[in-house]
Amino acid sequence: MSYSLLAGGKRIRPILVLTTGEALGASSATLMPIAGAIEMIHTYSLIHDDLPAMDNDDLRRGKPTCHKVFGEALAILAGDALLTQAFHILATHDLGQGATQQLLILQEITRASGALDGLISGQVVD
After folding, report:
1. CATH homologous superfamily for 2-98?
2. Is residue 1 pLDDT above 90, yes or no?
3. Fewer Cβ in 10 A, N or C end of the chain?
4. Using CA atoms, how far apart are residues 115 and 121, in angstroms rounded to an integer?
5. For the chain, what are the domain ranges?
6. CA nearest 48: which of 8, 15, 14, 82?
7. Confidence at 25, pLDDT banded by 50, 70, 90
C-alpha cells in the first residue's frame, strides 16, 4: 500500500480538496482526512489500472508498478485495502459538519467512485 501511495506524483486531488475547502471556510485540519481519502482512492484506481487484466503497465512514473514488485495478488489486495481504508477514514473522522454533512460527503465520494457514473464506469469505457 505504502509503495504506491507514497510514490512520487502531483497530489493534485488532495490539493484541490484543501484549496477548495479552505476557500469555502473549512479548516485544513477538517479537510486533511478527506484529502487523504481521495488520494487513497486515486492510488487504488492506479494500482488496479496497471494490472495485467487492465492496462498491464510495467512502470508508473518510472518505477515498477505495484504488481511487478509484489505480484498480482498483493497488488489487488493493496488496492482493495486502500479503497476500504479511505472509506473507513471518511466514516470515522470528525469532518467538522455533523453526521448529516458527513453522510453527504460519503455519498458523493462513493457515487464518484462507483459503477454508474463514476470511476468504475470510466474504467469500463477505457
Report:
1. Farnesyl Diphosphate Synthase (1.10.600.10)
2. yes
3. C
4. 5
5. 2-98
6. 82
7. very high
Cβ distance 51 to 67 under 8 Å?
yes
Q: pTM for this structure?
A: 0.93
Cα torsion through 6, 123, 112, 8, rounded to 10: 20
pLDDT at residue 57, as a whole number: 96
Query: From CA 6, how far away is CA 40, in angstroms rounded?
Result: 10
Q: Which grid cell is 81?
A: 485495502
Q: How far is CA 33 from each of CA 18, 28, 40, 103, 117, rounded to the nearest angstrom?
A: 10, 9, 10, 14, 24
